[in-house]
Amino acid sequence: MSETNDVIDRELTMSRAMVESIAHEMRDNEEVFYMGEDVADYGGIFDSTQGLLDEFGRDRIMDVPISETAYLGAAVGAAQEGMRPIAELMFVDFFGVAMDQIYNQLAKNTYMSGGNVNVPLVLTAAVGGTYNDAAQHSQTLYGTFAHVPGLKLVVPSTAYDAKGLMHNAIRDDDPVMYLFHKRLMGIGWMPAPDGPKTPVPETDYTIPFGSADIKREGADVSVVTLGLHVHRALAAAESLAAEGIDVEVIDLRTLVPLDTETIVESVRKTGRLVVVDEDYRSFGVTGEIVASVADRDLGALDAVERVAVPDVPIPYARPMEDEVIPDAADIEESVREVVSSK
Amino acid sequence: MVSPDRIREMYGDMLTARHYEERLQEEYLEGKQPAFDISAGPIPGELHLAAGQEAAAVGVCHHLRPEDTVTAPHRPHHVAIAKGVDLKRMTAEIFGRESGLGKGKGGHMHLFDPDVNFACSGIIAEGCPPAAGAALAAKKRNEDSVAVAFLGEGAIDQGAFLESLNFASVHNLPVVFVIEDNDWAISMPKERVTDVEDGSDRAAGFDMPGVRVDQDDAVAVYEAAAEAIGRARDRNGPTLLEVQVHRRMGHFMGDPQTYRSDDDEEAALARDSIDRIESELRDHGVDDDDLASMRDDAETRVEEAIAWAKEQPQPDPEDAYDDVFVNPPSGVTTEEPEFELAEVNADE
Amino acid sequence: MRVAVRATGDWEADVDETEGILVDWFAREGRSIEEGDTLCEIQVEKVSVDIQAPVAGTLDEIVVGEDDEFEIGDTLGWIRSE
Asked: What gap in Å lies between CA B322 and CA A320, rounded to an integer?
């Protein structure tokens, strides 16, 4: 493959990278189709299906009634017949409306059938806050879906990752939840930070699940995070470098499967762990990562900090939302904390 | 026959609601032009405005008392105004201020005013079950209050709506479900996603009356609602009432509406329920000066509310930690009693 | 020869605004591009529009940067054609 040696000139936003991989899979496989609210003419409220209607038509880019139980459940059924549906929850916060289909059917049918039934469904959903949409439209809920056995869980942070992970998600024979952060999509009306727009190859490629990516190497502190907070952690690392603190930033990319190996190796090197999450603090991702490292190598841990949403719903007004969603300054503070404590 | 005084009251609320939405649009777009950035400007977050839907709100709510419960969806302002929600505190909430209805925590989709039993939710159709619950409470307590759930026509395909109809019907609850049919679920036209042409036809499957008012005519809505609310108050069970309204603005501010034809938009703008009620008032002998002074009153009310809201302080960041619970779990609020318990014999 | 990339197209008929904002560039200065490649995304009156490369060549100069405003018809950048 000489192509891989070429420099990739073209840069894409995360949404365009996602759409490119979906279109590619749809061209290759007639059995792939996309269902969701406002995914056809609108192209997805967060640009997740921009342009797909024109190429594939209404039979394969399907607007659906506001009936999440029906269409997510129908996607489960079609997947069990061997099709490869992609179904979109407009906001992950709307999960409650269809929780049974997600938690009791999609996640468990493979197991309950003794592996005789599989559900190759990709469930996409927009996640995250930072634009004052309040408690019912700003959650990430990473921990909620990683908690139940049976769902693979993908959270891309860059266009390059988004495309490779989407290819892998559609080809995977198990249910995959693919949670994209609104603030990273590159939407005109919700400007992204620098970072998610990256060079993206035109060819298809896969990024295997369970392979965390070290987005920045460092010797002093391991910052483990995902989604939007990869970029906030990188910004924090940049400022801390000026203070002589060398931060390693690990982007988990998938929560299920979790790449514990990469995290533990990093902590063995640095001795200090800061876990950053945009989900609620208690019973969630931060606690799980710390526990996983402790299980594997308690002795490697000299100091630990967790940075997450304190256990409150996401408030509406800006001063309060800014207070509870971790920013780069919060990450810096926790990094300084672990450095000074050990 | 609806009394001229009642029509004047409804007209006043419709003018207030319309002016309110137009002024909020202006305030919201401040700092968002030419680049529309959802996180810029004085009003945070998403904004769903209800211009063109006033007739449904006033026609129903003008039958209600403060103790009657109303739940509204993500597009709630016109319903809140018709129900008598405190306009200043509601506006402060929309601006995310400390003296707002929810101290800036809820925002425009999540307004709660217990003084007039008003609440709304940002999740489609999820106001229906709580409305049935308020009706259940009234029934259990032998009170003659009623409950009304407002929802859009896109919500009638949602389980929460359909299950609530059955629950209300089987328990004979004093509740009215009001569908505001504005033809659009964001970008999805009704005919593409819903099997019935009239949402009110859904009632047949739940053994309750289904009534549709085909024009956004406040007086016609008022008359249809008289029967539905009366039925509820008299303990004769729930009703499904549908009103044709029009979405004069996008689904949310910032919606480019590229999916909507110019004809459709123009048709929505041409059918104005405010013009209609105005001509009704003229028929009752109300003159231009009178109409103009009512318009002035409505505008003054709105301007005062917006001015007041903008003077209110922003919440402190630390306020974010309050109000998760009424009894915060950090403190022990009751003591565990001590009992002398008999020993349990494992052999028995 | 340099060819201008201009903020112009069929979409102009649908907008009343005269100003827009440049949302994203998909290539950097000095990178090679094909004719018809989507070069950048602009937003006019809340509507997003893709601007395509009028010719093949290299992106010589970005005139209107990301998040910057422009007037419809303005030159957004220059392509040096081969």
From this structure: 11
Which chain A residue has the Cα nearest residue C58?
A: A9
What does residue B111 show for φ and ψ, rounded to 5 degrees?
-100, 130
Q: Is C60 on the interface with A (CB under 8 A)?
A: no
CA distance, residue C32 to nearest chain A CA (Å): 7
Q: How far apart are CA B161 and CA A195, in angstroms?
A: 43
d(CA C62, nearest CA chain B) in Å:
19
Q: For an interface test with C, which of B249, B258, B260 has the most C Cβ atoms less than 10 Å from its Cβ?
A: B258
Q: Quote the pLDDT of residue B332.
A: 59
Which run of H or of E encompasses B275? helix B273-283
| Interface residue B254 vs chain C (CB under 8 A) | yes
Evaluate if residue B108 carries a pLDDT over 80: yes
- Sort out which chain A residues have CB atoms less than 8 A from B157's CB and list them: 65-67, 70
**Chain B: nearest CA to C51, how far in angstroms?**
17
Q: What residue spans in chain A does CATH classification 3.40.50.920 cover? A: 213-341
Closest CA to B79 of B42, B43, B127, B38: B127
pTM for this one? 0.94
Q: Is the pLDDT of residue B263 over 60?
A: yes
Please indicate if any CB of chain B lies within 8 Å of the CB of A47. no
Residue A4, pLDDT > 80, answer: no
Domain boundaries, chain B: 4-321
* Cα–Cα distance, B185 to B206 (Å, whole number): 24
Query: What CA–CA distance (Å, rounded) separates A7 from A110?
Result: 42
User: Is it true that domain B4-321 has CATH number 3.40.50.10420?
Assistant: no
Separation of alpha carbons B127 and B124, rounded Å? 8
| DSSP letter for each residue of C44-68 | ETTEEEEEE-SSSEEEEEE-S-TT-
Residue A341's CB is within 10 A of a number of other CB atoms, namely 11
pLDDT digits (tens, 9 = 90+) for B279-327: 999 999 999 999 999 999 999 999 999 999 999 999 999 999 999 998 8
C-alpha distances (whole Å) from C44 to each of B47, B252, C8 are 20, 17, 11
DSSP annotation string for B126-171: TTHHHHHHHHHHHHHTT----EEEEEEGGGGGSHHHHHHHHHHHHT
Of C43, C67, C69, nearest to B36 by CB-CB distance is C43
Name the strand (E) or helix (H) holding B59: helix B54-61
Peptide bond into A156 cis (omega under 30): no
Q: A137 and B122: CB-CB below 8 Å?
A: yes
Residues 81-110 of A with CB under 8 A from B: 93-94, 96-97
**DSSP of A251-275, one letter per residue?**
E-SEEES--HHHHHHHHHHHSEEEE
Note the pLDDT tens digit of each residue in B133-152.
999 999 999 999 999 999 99
Domain A213-341 listed as CATH 3.40.50.920: yes
| Angle of helix B54-61 versus helix B218-233 axis, rounded to 10 | 40
The domain A7-199: what is its CATH number? 3.40.50.970
Mutation site, B124, B312, B330, interface A, largest A CB count within 10 A: B124
Task: Work out whether the CA dihedral A321, A322, A328, A330 comes out positive or negative.
Answer: negative
Instruction: Give chain C's domains with CATH numbers.
Output: 2-81 (2.40.50.100)
Instruction: Return the top range by mean pLDDT from B32-46, B72-86, C18-32, C42-56.
Output: B72-86
Helix (H, G, I), strand (E, B) or coil at B262: helix
Chains with ≥3 CB–CB distances under 8 Å to C: A, B
Partners of B158 on chain A (C-beta within 8 Å) are 66-68, 97
Asked if A167 is an active-site residue, the reply is: no
Asked if the Cβ–Cβ distance from B256 to C20 is below 8 Å, we say no
Does residue B117 contact residue B106 with C-beta atoms inside 8 Å?
Answer: no
